[in-house]
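Re-run with default settings, no changes from the original entry. Doing this only to confirm the output is reproducible before filing.
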Amino acid sequence: MNTDPIKLELYKNMLTSVAEEMGVTLQRTAFSPNIKERLDFSCAVFDGTGKMVAQAAHIPVHLGSMPLSVLAAIEHTEMAPGDMIALNDPYRGGTHLPDITLVAPVFSDEKTNNGKDRPLFFLANRAHHADVGGMTPGSMPIATSVIQEGIRIPPVKLVRSGELDTDLWELILSNVRTPEERRGDMEAQLAANRVGERRLQEIVTKYGTTEITAYMQELCEYASRMVRARLQEIPDGRYVYADVLDNDGISDEPIEIRVAIEIENDTAVIDFTGTAPQARGSVNAIYAITLSAVFYTFRCLAGADVPANAGCLDPIRVIAPEGTVVNAKFPAAVAGGNVETSQRIVDVLLGALAQACPDQIPAASSGTMNNLTIGGYDTARGKEFTYYETIAGGMGARPDRDGIDAIHTHMTNTMNTPIEAIETNYPMQVVAYGVRRGTGGTGKYRGGAGVIRALRLLTDAEVTILSERRTKGPYGLQGGEAGQSGRNVLVSNDKEHPLPGKVSISTDEGDVIRIETPGGGGFSS
């Protein structure tokens, strides 16, 4: 087939628009502030083999790992028209338990050799649910086993031939603290996939199966060629870097993540050999998270015009030894691996690449999502509540300009929860929210400043914080200084009590939780 470059660009945007419309549907029909305000969800389109061909501009840690969820759904279930698969088990296609993924096949009129319908595409969306059970509200506990973190859903049919499996539906909702909210958010996920299915069927009707599948393959090959061309511009060599997580929340020992990037011609080998063994606490990342961080980093390195699809990883081989903090084995706790360790993996990848192309790599950004979960009984509204938020920090300074203040970076791409949404939906009052001035690392170009977010609790509650960069600030590059580390504080009876980076506590009505996030590193002396 002769590829028309104009048509290739049209298909790139057409397939991306399907994922984008799925996202708009999910946002506008969701129930929780975490999804409708913070936009903590992602959507993507896959071909009939489960290869990602298009994604919306949503959350990198979701999108890079979602292909393994689709493959798990394909391997563990036999899908028919109208089916939809749900899963969240990190060891069977998921990432961490709050992220529930729904996978839907889209069928054509073609038959397989055994006479059965063959999926032409797959659609998937993933949303972070503010509670999926477990030992603490918000399902981001300081755990030592994934069993403690919430309900685990293997790849199972939630919808069969267009009909919801109400037994399974009620089983899931019976294992969470806020079933009404979960019901609304999961219904929004179902709607998003249905919208995507309609749009893809319209495209097939207009352009035909043969053409669309051919251009899907060509888009992946095009992305592969562009990444290979970018790798050829990097000097061949072996580039090594290491950084640490503060701790795992159980002990105070730092946890090293080490990478060696070997560039040869138009290929790269990413080797995490030497990384610390999986930890007792919940900072363990499964392989899908590590792969996602690699995908994100090299996709950024390749440039904005590269289609974000499976082809980006064709020239790249990832070595992540099993049983380490970057490829944990069951039953390791993983809630923080998705949100915190993913950020540090990006930091070490960029630290290594800064040796290869120093004029193109920024200093370290805040390096943490500053996860805050709060839950309990809302006496004013007469019901249980769970609040979850990731809080922005400073972006690392870039080779030609300052970093940006108060922004989500790298593996997260969410918004903040507006003050009005917090005070309308939760028994909390926002007493401070602003830029944490002076926290960016100094240098020719300054790192971005972090954030101060302080919440007064209007009821007794359980609070869990999973945060990083509390003992060592984000690194600077080329002589730039490190950004200032973050700080967590409980204010009770007008007294400040410093809190660890990872902690679960019981709080009283009137207490204030204050999160002060890290600034980004500076660039150049």
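The first strand starts at residue 41 and ends at 47. The longest helix spans residues 179-207.
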